[in-house]
Amino acid sequence: MALCSRLLQFSSLAIAFQRILGIPLLPLLKERRESTVPDYVKTYAPLVWQHSEEKYYPSDIGAQLVHTKPEINFAVIDGYPTPLDLDNLDSLNAKNGTDVFLTSVDDVTQAPAWINGVKPDESHQTVGAISASIIVNDRGSGNVDAFYLYFNAYNWGGILLDQDVDEHIGDWEHNMIRFANGTPTQVWYSQHGFGEAFTYDCLEKQGTRPVAYSGNGSHAVYATTGTHDHTIPNANLPGKGILTDYTDQGSLWDPLLSAYFHSFDANTNTFTPYDPSYPTAWLRYVGRWGDQMYPDSDPRQHKILGIDATARFADGPTGPQDKQLNRTEVCPVAKGYVCDVREKIGA
């Protein structure tokens, strides 16, 4: 009886609230539900193994701005806000934003400590570093895409013909899980210029959580441990090739413990934090998260036979805004690639 009485009181108050303010109750309740991260986004979130010889671990997103300055064509931008932080980074969009490079204030060949990131501890957390961004796009009719984006301050691309290649400041890789009515159906693993897609059911898991393996140095995300020949993009051939990533079970990272959570509205291209304390402006930034490719005249740069694709130092990456957050398929659209959702690991 006491419970019924409370429910009746609540109902009466709700009706009075509606009449006084003229605001329907159901939309208010719907808004309250949408302001909470869906449970399934956390229940099925990937766990990411770092390589046992990794040097450049997940890094604090905001700290990247402390160690960089915005440049266009190797010249510092005039009149940018100082200090530059996650609450004003999008102001650079008004300064030819897509041409902006967040350029290291240090010579990276001298191995400044900040590029090392934070190794996950025994609790699988990057303590003191918010190193992931989790973005939820509710596409309607029970269809939801959850993006798990991983940030590293530095990328080492490996060795080609005995020379280091594809090094750059800043690195964004990601998984995306596609849900249907709260059930995971497909998972995307980003790798260099493209990646691989799998059915959720076929993946290795810890409990309900799919396992991802981060390539040593490159941080390309794979579904299996071992060697990954990516000479032919999207092929992920077994064994060692001309371009090879290596994965193993070094230290385990749980991105949920070190993340900002936002929803994304594709109709308005807006981000909304699930917690008001989370910064949001940085997600709108359209520029690069690292240095511009060093010119041939820079003594730090080298290329094999003068080919840009073999450069030691490449352009820094674009950020979450550029990861096709409103995809038709689980794979992003990329010229020359077909979205092949594999139903078997290694297939």
What does this structure look like?
The protein has 347 residues and is mainly β. The protein is 11% helix and 30% strand. It has four helices and 20 strands. Strands 19-18-5-6-9-10-11-20 form an eight-stranded mixed beta sheet, with no helix packed on it. Strands 1, 12, 13, 14 and 17 form a five-stranded mixed beta sheet that branches. The longest helix is centred in the N-terminal third of the chain and has 20 residues, at 2-21. It is globular and about 55 Å long.
Element order: H for helix, E for strand: HHHEHEEEEEEEEEEEEEEEEEEE
Described by strand count, sense and barrel closure, the largest sheet is: 8 strands, mixed
Mean pLDDT: 90
* Contiguous runs where pLDDT drops below 50 for at least 5 residues: 1-33
Strand content: 25-35%
How far is it from the N-terminal to the C-terminal residue, by CA? Answer: 60 Å
What is the overall shape?
globular
Estimated helix fraction? 10-25%
The strands making up the biggest β-sheet line up spatially as 19-18-5-6-9-10-11-20
Q: How many E strands?
A: 20
Q: Radius of gyration, Cα only, in angstroms?
A: 22 Å
- Specify the structural class: mainly beta
